[in-house]
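To the wet lab folks,

You asked to see what we're planning to order before we commit. Fair enough. Below is the target structure as tokens, and below that is the sequence we designed to fit it. If anything looks off to you, flag it before the synthesis order goes out.
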């Protein structure tokens, strides 16, 4: 008996099995990736990018105006995880600041919360609420007289 006669013939059923296995693996990977992607999606940054692009030049102008103020924000967390904010100009603290702040989760998994600040002296403001553990964005609007500045700071 020769070598060729001992081998089984490659039939259409063999090819069908190979194709089913191949596409089965592809489908399992695709469904797994789609499930992981949809479970971790926190939403869009803007709902309509075209409309947002219409404001882009205005945002650039505001950023340039804010840079001309020469303000430097300093932000940190104290041991109790309260936010401490100081705004300086020419290495001098700005006092009598009006501050509005919103703490939001980057993925939108937890509701945003308004932060309230109180002065603690030396131009430093301290939040009355502690920041929960994790990564957060702080959107900070600071007003001093007729001038204002907006900051987005990553808080951990």
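Sequence we intend to order:
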């Amino acid at each position: 008996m020769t070598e060729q006669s001992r081998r089984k013939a490659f039939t259409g059923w063999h090819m069908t099995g190979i194709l089913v296995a191949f596409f089965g693996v592809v489908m399992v990977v695709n469904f797994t990736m789609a499930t992981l992607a949809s479970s971790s999606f926190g939403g869009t940054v803007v709902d309509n990018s075209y409309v947002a692009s219409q404001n882009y030049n205005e945002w650039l102008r505001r950023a340039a105006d804010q840079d001309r103020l020469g303000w430097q924000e300093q932000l940190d967390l104290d041991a109790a995880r309260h936010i401490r904010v100081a705004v300086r100009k020419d290495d001098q603290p700005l006092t009598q600041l009006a501050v509005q702040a919103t703490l939001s989760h980057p993925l939108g998994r937890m509701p945003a919360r308004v932060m309230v600040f109180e002065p603690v002296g030396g131009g430093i403001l301290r939040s009355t609420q502690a920041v929960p553990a994790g990564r957060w964005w702080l959107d900070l609007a600071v007003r001093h007289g007729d001038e204002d500045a907006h900051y987005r700071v990553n808080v951990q």
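Structural context that might help your review: The first helix runs from residue 3 to 6. The helical segments are 3-6, 12-40, 49-54, 56-69.

Thanks,
Computational group
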